[in-house]
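Before the break, one more example. Copy the sequence into your notebook; we will annotate it together after we see the structure.
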Amino acid sequence: MLAVSLALALSSANESRIAFSSCLHQDKPMPFWVALRATRPDAFLWLGDNVYADTDDRDKFQAFYDGLGAIPDFQAFREETQYIATWDDHDYGLNDGGASFAARDMANELFDEFWNIPADERANPGVYGVRYLEKGDRRIQVIVLDTRYFRSDLIRVDGAYQPVNEPAATILGEAQWSWLEAILKEPADMRIVMSSIQLVPEDHIYEKWANIPAERQRFFELLKSTKAEGVIVVSGDRHLGEISMMDAGIGYPLYDVTASGLNQSRIDWRLQEPNRHRVMTVNYGNNFGLISVQWGEEDPTVNLQLIGDQGEILATQVLKLSWLRPGRIPPPRG
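Here is what the structure looks like once it is written out:
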């Protein structure tokens, strides 16, 4: 997908509000709409599994999109709120699928149609792209990654994914990597990276960037080499919510806020997944995320939140934007 810069006007005078989540099953109850709309987000980021299709049959796939599109609350929200979307495996068409999925081009076409992707963005395969949310002279760059179309096959043993260390193994593919490097060099006050799978967590046995360790490290090194400031990752997939943070060697803390899912989370208690980088967790219960930025302050406050489907605040992490600049974490001595 070609990178086309679209300036999306934000509504409130001194605050940006970007909501996000993933994992919306079109056939299950959706009690979250009132709480989500009450946050009055300037934009909503659909992080994947936006429908549960899991098919290579075009007619069936289209029917799932038609079913979601016919839901009145979805229609109303999409009409009143700017949206940006990527996909994950279930709206890609194959559970845990990657580049070997034979129907990926069909799924790509249906995605573009349903999410109203402009025609001039459809020339390249995949669903990656960039948007800019502007407030006066402030700019938030939203980077939409595609972790499905180009991804190499994974290795699974006894239900657990193992590291893939083949030199040619990839998550983004070379064309997307080249595009991403150029995008990260563009000016922005803050950058939100949309990744359907988790980037920072590395200890659980499921899908994650750490399944192909060299690609994860390449992402960290690209942030460092481009000197990209203000990066926050938002992710989905896991049917839970959590805020993770690590020193990725980029000079400032790298946060990954996972919001999953809108109506697919476990609603009863369960053990936490292992995650050495976890700051806080929403281990059960449906949730969506909200990033708010107070631009009226000399050093803008950035609030990362996870919110339940009844509007309850489940987790929050307050930062200063200056903390997301190289030099906040000194390089190791020696």
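Residues 1-10 have pLDDT under 50 and may be disordered. Residues 213-226 form the longest helix (14 residues). Try to locate both features in your own notes.
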